[in-house]
Write a structure and sequence with these properties.
The chain is of the alpha/beta class and 336 residues long. The chain has one domain: TIM Barrel. Helices cover 46% and strands 15% of the residues. The chain is built from 12 helices and 10 strands. An 8-stranded parallel β-barrel has the order 1-2-3-6-7-8-9-10, surrounded by 7 helices. It has a two-stranded antiparallel sheet with strand order 4-5. Helix 7 packs across helix 8. The protein is globular, with a radius of gyration of 19 Å.
Length: 336
């Protein structure tokens, strides 16, 4: 492990209040979103959409890195230029999703386990030759009547730590994503308790697996009520519960936290990040940034709709949402 390589990459990713654009949707997820927008679910349409994203002029002013999917990191633009070269020439750091998705966890009804550790050491080396400098692995935790169980949490967290160790061995920064899902009718207090429990288990597992804390990025959910909850949270509620949970769980040695949006609307995800900086700017021991997918992309996808005559307007929306999240990192977001 070259600690300087890992540390330098993290600092570059988030320099000048930048964040990450997650465009690592699996084929199934991407096709589902295309279907909802009336776009043909083909590899060529996925290539054209991702080309639209990475060729947006000025994206590098707000986005320090992008997370790609295996299909995407191998794709090229219309003129045959590799996507990776477009990104590198723009000064955007390349990341790659390396988990293989979730399946039902045997013996644990209604809970999931993430696959992908087999062969990961070799895959990381291949992705490294293609320009990847950081990676991502997602675990899924659901709040329900009898979930999450400790056994499921431990299994998922152990996999996250083993993934992180393999990344650091390869001088690739691991983004560690233990997502407590918004689906359900749970309260913000229940989300707080579950998220704190998951994150504390994560940090303990990092120590047992000899993870260098200064060389990781944690990608957690915000602490927020479930989508079916009777009471809706204010922006202040989300900011206060989230930051208090992180302060109680994540050591200052961790350099950066980059939130997932988790199904929040673009406006709410940005507003909540902004409020955290507004209320707690002088109390944050880590970089607090964003690693959004839908919260940045969705307006662009809805505008494009698979029609190239909409590219300019769609790219304008992408740039606007990237810029608003950069402003939120500074506590300067002003809703329209």
């Amino acid at each position: 492990m070259n600690k300087k390589i890992l540390s330098d990459c993290i600092q570059q990713l988030f320099a000048n209040s930048k964040g990450l654009l997650a465009m690592d949707e699996s084929l199934g997820t991407c096709n589902k979103r295309f279907a909802a927008a009336g776009i043909p679910q083909t590899e060529e349409m996925r290539r054209r959409y991702r080309q639209l994203l990475i060729t947006t002029k000025g994206l590098q002013d707000s986005i320090g890195g992008v997370i790609l999917f295996d299909e995407t990191i191998r794709q090229k633009t219309d003129d045959g230029t590799p996507f990776t070269k477009i990104l590198q020439d723009a000064g955007i750091i390349i990341g790659i999703k390396v988990d293989k998705g979730t399946i039902g966890q045997p013996g644990f009804p209604n809970e999931k386990i993430t696959e992908g550790l087999d062969g990961l050491r070799n895959r990381l080396q291949e992705y490294k030759t293609m320009g990847a400098r950081f990676a991502k692995w997602r675990a899924v935790i659901r709040i329900g009547e009898n979930t999450p169980t400790q056994g499921s949490i431990e299994a998922n967290i152990h996999a996250l730590a083993r993934y992180a160790a393999l990344c650091q061995e390869a001088d690739i920064v691991p983004i560690v994503e233990p997502e407590v899902l918004m689906e359900g009718d749970h309260t913000i207090w229940q989300c707080f308790e579950t998220t704190e429990r998951v994150l504390k288990n994560l940090i303990y597992q990092f120590y047992t697996q000899h993870i260098w804390l200064e060389g990781i990025i944690i990608k957690p959910n915000m602490v927020i009520s479930g989508t079916g909850a009777a009471k809706k949270d204010t922006a202040n509620d989300v900011a206060e519960f989230t930051v208090k949970c992180l302060l109680a769980s994540i050591p200052p040695a961790v350099p950066a936290i980059a939130f997932l949006s988790g199904g929040q609307s673009p406006e709410y995800a940005t507003m909540h990040l902004d409020k955290m900086h507004e209320l707690f700017k002088n109390k944050l021991p880590w970089i607090l940034s964003f690693s959004f997918a839908r919260a940045i992309q969705q307006p662009t996808l809805d505008c494009w709709k698979g029609d190239d005559k909409n590219i300019a307007a769609a790219q304008k929306l992408l740039l606007e949402h990237a810029e608003t999240n950069k402003a939120a990192r500074q506590g300067n977001y002003i809703p329209k």
